[in-house]
Amino acid sequence: MPHFRFTLQRVLEVAGLRADLAQQELARAQRTLELRRQELAVARERVEQIGRLLARRRQGKLSIEEILGYERFLERLQGFREQVEALVVQAEEQVEEARLRAVELMQRRKSLDGLRERQLEHHLAEVRRAEQKELDEMASRRMG
Hints:
Order of helices and strands: HH
Number of helices: 2
Shape: rod-shaped
């Protein structure tokens, strides 16, 4: 009896490669999200620092130009923080898309693995039947 050969072996290999690539893409998206979250934390902290500094400076003697300068700077920082917040949302969406894709491709690989196992079991059952048939024929020749 010929050796076992999974008829969809190439498809299984490609599915495995795609699943691996999807896992790598998910990891990359998660790293990007983490970096964006760190950037956001820094931006928020900087806005708070400048806000506190401006509040302290207002208690002292500041000219209108200095106050306006601090306020413009604070507005720019807040705009930057909002941009980073948007990047975090975008990165979260990319992580979710990558996660769904990875799950889908891993399920496909798993179903192909299951099909391969069923084909292997069927092949082994056929081998056992052929061996048993051969043993039965040898026994009947001895008896007869």
